[in-house]
Amino acid sequence: MGLGISFIYFAIILFLAWIAGVLPFLKVFFTTVIPYVALVVFIVGVIARIIRWGRSPVPFRITTTCGQEKSLPWIRQNKLDNPSSWLGTLGRMLLEILFFRSLFRNTQAEFRGDRLVYSVDKWLWFFSLAFHWSFLIIFLRHFRFFTEPIPSFVTFLQNIDGFFQVGLPIIYITNILIVAGLLYLFLRRIFDSKVRIVSLPSDYFPLLLILGIAATGILMRYFFKTDLVAVKEFTVAILSFQSVSGDLINKLSPLFVIHFTFVCTLLIYFPMSKLMHLGGVFLSPTRNLANNNRMKRHINPWNYDVPVHTYEEYEDEFRDKMKAAGIPVEKEV
Amino acid sequence: MKLYDGWKIILGLIVFFAFFSLPVWINLSSAQSRVKPQLEYPKDSKQCVENKDYMNHYHMNLLNFWRDSVVRMNYRYVVRNGVVLTHNGKPLEMSLTLACLKCHNNKQKFCDQCHNYLDVKPYCWDCHIEPKGGLK
Amino acid sequence: MATKIKPEELLQTINLKPKFKNWMDVPVEFRKGTFNYAGSEEALIYLDQPNPRKWQTTDPDWKLPENWKEIILEGLRERLEKFRSLKIFMDICVRCGACADKCHFFLGSGDPKNMPVLRAELLRSVYRREFTTAGKIMGRMVGARDLTFDVLREWFYYFYQCTQCRRCSVFCPYGIDTAEITFLTRELMNLIGVNIDWIMTPVKNSYRTGNHLGIQPHGMKDSLEMATADIEEITGIHIDIPLNKKGAEVLFVTPSADFFGTPHYYTFLGYVMLFHEIGLDYTFSTYASEGGNFGSFVSHELMKRLNNKIYAEAKRLKVKWILGGECGHMWRVIHQYMDTMNGPADFLEVPRSPITGTVFENAKSTKMVHICEFTADLIYHGKIKLDPSRNDHWHATFHDSCNPSRGMGLIEEPRYIIKNVMRNFTEMPDNTIREQTFCCGSGAGLGTDENFEMRMRGGFPRANAAKYVKDKYGVNICLCICAIDKANLPHLFEFWAPGLEVGGVHEMVGNALVMSGEKPRETDLRFQPLINQEV
What we know:
Strand order of the largest sheet of chain C: 2-1-3-4
Strand content of chain B: 5-15%
Mean pLDDT of chain B: 86
Oligomer: heterotrimer
Helix content of chain C: 40-55%
Low-confidence stretches of chain B: none
Shape of chain C: globular
Helix content of chain B: 40-55%
Radius of gyration of chain C: 23 Å
Low-confidence stretches of chain C: none
Largest sheet of chain B: 2 strands, antiparallel
Largest interface: A-C, 102 and 120 residues
Shape of chain B: elongated
Number of strands of chain C: 7
Order of helices and strands of chain C: HHHHHHHHHHHHEHHEHEHEHEHHHHEHEH
Number of strands of chain B: 4
């Protein structure tokens, strides 16, 4: 479901961006108004969504434990998969967020004759991790276009990312990995029937969009070069609230306008979509709580009194039978 | 309005905001963000091997091609339509030092202007000696 | 029992690569043998639950209140405000599908709606429609749909095909817990009186008599006396089992099936023999005679109403701390809910084993210790004498019960005990044990006869792994620490792996326990002859 619809949405945005790159009036709008709208929607939207989550309490400590609990001192606790302290929980969260610990467990079930077997399946983990890390590094590398002066970590990242010094301009490892990761994630949605059944337009669309961003970026770097000085003057102006001259906008190539429009679309789309898993993963109560339930009482702010069947009511109903069976009672009559 | 685990969530939101607004803070905190590359073009030459627009976008590809031609194929001169190009009456060599730098003789005021602005570190100078200031 | 499908036939119907179809267009079909009967009017009235009436799940008219949709949507709104978990789990799933083939019901049925992600989408689609802007405007294009009677039937069918085992939650990169979603959806359905009898009647029984079987105090006394007689016959030792004894040091709470069920009963004998041998000052209770919490299968409120008895009884009997028997969902409730719901247990003391002096720091707030933690500590300190050769007629494997493993982390304690009380032990394959263990297929109130086929399907992955060690290593008993396991696994293995028995960990303890003054043992607790014994 939804592959076609996502393509249509993607094509519409591509078309608008392309027109904007050619028509001066639209170009001004797409390069000076939309970016601010996108930034505000992104920042405010993400914050609003997280606050919306935060307004609901966590009534119970429902940690999913994935290893030995802390119990007797001579039994070795699995402190990362079943943490009981804040430090262990921090470790668990870091593993989850930085290295996708849970996805690393992934297996694939299949029949071998009458036997169900579970083979190790790390591809999803590998490509997801490759995609997410590449995206982050590419974003950070882009600080060379975002800021003047350029922070020193940019040079460092560029050196590492272009370590093999292949090609001209040097091919970044992350550029290959992000495309590979996106293609894998996209293709398995189509070819793995289980995933295809559950996929919605909102699953295909962000993949297409980010793929579009990556593709236009790569095209600009290697094939249809753009005036990078103009691009940087433009982004720095946007990101420091300076005015942008018509002359400068004229220098921006249509391909850049498409790239830029895709990025703005992503920013606007982000807070209202599943991409909010970026924030949600920090707040997931099965992961971010220590399994110290029996050690430390968890408070439910809305805990309320419920009707109970008291011992007195119980004894009143069964007193005769209890006495006959020689079971001690509170009241003889 | 009650926010549960408030301080943790607010701390997280501050980190989020700080991270994504970092470019803005860097730009606003430095006057440098208004400085743009100022290229100094040669005064006595009017023409380059290719037009300005091409050189602006694709000079790295041209230099790469030159490097490969000279070092790997031993082709030394710039040929256009089967004829060797000349400069001041002499055949034009495919050479950074002997061709480009003859006119663009100030690296700081030419090459470095854009390269530094965009944090590009070309490896030309791994082999070639950097011209210091006004090279003769 | 319903007409039986044969294992081979059942296997044929499983396709783990389901054909693509838009799931919203696939209507739900109530197939005989795959769903449960409706909750009884009487139970709902007794418990003062909404919309008590006579109805059946197969009826075209479920006799719902006129405004049932508003009730559900209002209930959903309220729960979104009360449970951050629900909000997050509704919003952040990326449908990566990592959970898809982790669910035992999917692996046993191949039904796409049994993939945890799609099970959650059943609720999520309605959430989007009612609570997100995109869903309100764009509808199906963003995976949103209206709440209709068909959707409700689908919820009923599939949320009662989830045993809240949390295996999917282990694999989910965001820890989305289908158990939580199932739990809250069942709670929503309960608001309009849509529930199943095998949950509601046990809840009523637990509420009234203290245990889900509805055993009245004198019935329980009979059962304890029967145990006394059996133990005397096997060991020659007479044990009086304390009941409702005031001032005992420890209150012992175990699932009520232990008093009557087979093979639960042998585990019960094991407990009693152990407590006698170490001289523990303890008591059973008739009022708190159920560890298992059927309320936890239908709503937080009913969970709390039933769970209340344990602390109340501990307070009344003036015990120092509480010990809990072998049970699955019971321990999820005790470990993760009891203290929050019905605590603080400030009238109790931090549990301390009177035999070894060990202070159970890990239970210092809830003040309730798992029997496996308690026994492992006894064995570690050499406080009991064991003769593992008395279990030589058994070759065991261990089935981790869902909730102790994924809602607690009780993994090594039972293994430590098993390895000390018997000599033949083989683990099932790695991806089917510990935190990756498979449910027996009948947890969370699904263990009925009318649901037989679905139980066999849901239990298939567990049975398949057990069959593997049975065939390859000659394993002849599967040990477990859960009352629902003990009730269901015998049927499951009879179906998929005939010849494999089921037992509890403390049954093996009882067999191996060398008691002072006992006569030479000739049989185990099942009255089966021992082998390798120098008699």
